[in-house]
Amino acid sequence: MCERKETYDFVSFSELAYEWELADKDVVESKIKRRIKSLNEKYNQVRVNNIRSLRHELFEEISLENKSKYFIESQGKFADIGDFNLDQMVIDYNEKYTEINNSDLVNIIEFAVYLFYVR
Question: What is the number of structural domains in the chain?
Answer without folding.
Answer: 1
